[in-house]
What does this fold into?
Amino acid sequence: MNRQNRAFGALRRAFSASALAAALLLPLALSSCGDSKGSVAVGREQLFTLGYGPAEDQIDLFQLENAAGPLKTRLAMREGIFYVSNGNGAKVVRYSSFGDVLSMLYDPERNPEPLLLKPSKGEEGPGRRAYPYPFLAVGEVAVDSRQTVYVEDRLPPERRVFDKDSGSMLDYVALRFDKEGRFLDYLGQEGVGGTPFPFIAGIYVTPADDCVVVSMTQASWLVHWFDSRGFVRYSLKIRRDSLPQPSKDSGLIASLDRVLPDADGKSLLLKVDYYREAVDPQTKSRSGIEYAGSWAFRMDPSNAAVSDRWEIPYEEKLVKQANDGGTTRHVRIPELLGVSGDRLFMTTADDEGKSYLAIFDLGSRNISRYSIDISPDELFYSTLSLSSDGIVCALLGTKYEARVVWWRFDKLLGASAKAKLK
It folds into this structure.
């Protein structure tokens, strides 16, 4: 029996599968527009850098055996402590805001013997330690107030299965580790030890330390909401062909950008982008689809009822064509990063590679736009995250190093976002 079989020996059923094709999961795309008017530049702070390699204080963003595509690398921050899940490196490392390595979960067969940390062999005591675990495909990561770490991982091939009802693969779980780094258990669709999930799109924690796992099939988004013990609170299926519409007779093509728990810890927030058929003004024939707008919805996870909705402002401009005097419409579609208090944080980028962040206030329905400094040479790999108190963090990959930075929107926006969480 191999290492992965031992780690998942408590499974009640055997599963085998493979990941969903990424092309089936991506939303429709449109071109972005030019410079943003009225954007306020927000200063960034570089916290620390990580070299490329296999050591505890290094990261692997690009190298993978057999020339396979890179696995996920994700970043979570809580109370100034950073958790970096590195799929290619088969590890999760905890750093201070100065870049000090505090602890590590790692696969000893894919990593060298730790040098900065003491390898844990089950003993207790002071010191920074490295805890072995047979990871296969580390991905999404989240941390609750007790420092319980939730980590996405994939089952070995012999444990995967194709689910005929959904037409999807069931081969992902959410591992749980305590604050010391010891493995606790894993969450599946029914809770602790349950049926694996299809492709995991996100793992989130609420103010009450509930865990919300969002996964995807070809036809639906699945939301599994667990309490801190791992018991199911809600299980919800959001069909792609039954997404909420701005109005009953809109007839728009809906594409779900993201679904995540609201800051109140009781409801879900959905951001949906809408498209319509485009008609060529000269030939009057259909010429494809065009962006029609975005809306956010608050949904009850117990019955999928929508209680509130907000139209999200977006930026567009018309560019005259030199050849025929016609115009081309360019739209910058905001992508939902997360929620802090009653504010939605959304990211955009323009054709010149400049990055922007829009903050939409759910109460006033006003939107503010900011420019954030990310240079093109830092986009060999990038992942952003938003803390509950409004700090935007990023891990940016250059040719030579990875940089961990943040933007203190909590200071810029004041204490109101944090206060509304209480």
In short: Confidence is low (pLDDT under 50) at residues 1-36, 415-422. The radius of gyration is 22 Å. The first strand starts at residue 40 and ends at 42.
